[in-house]
Amino acid sequence: MSQLSPDNYRLILEELLLKKNPVKVSVRGMSMFPMLMKDDLVIVSPTNYQELKKGDIVVFEKNDTLVAHRLIDKQDGFLLTRGDGNRCADQALAYEKVKGKVSQVVKSRWKIAKYATRKPGRILAYTGTVTGSLFWASGIIAYKLVLLCRRLKTHNS
Fold it and tell me: What is residue 79's DSSP assignment?
């Protein structure tokens, strides 16, 4: 079985969302730490501008890749987003760049992930200026600990 290229994968995902189909996808980055982490599985559902609310996790196109970040404000067809584990908000983006929103976390190594789309996670849209820096720092520390554990495991094998 051959693997899809990233471009073809994104095109298929976008086509399914345009046809109003929810899509199960794997998270690739750490910008939504601690709510979402690499390899978590989420459902991305179609959405429209009117139904988006502060605290939703929106999936949008940025530099030819898809990004999932929390909506912290919307106004006049533009959205302001930030990754839960990022120190700063993203540049304002036009709603046309939005592909969908994360409606559910299907699988995660963290129990906290089930709250990413619920009230506890949504609160991060209001606290991100403080929590973003804290999550960013703890994410860096966690990442370095994982690397250290891998090195020790390889060294002891």
Answer: E
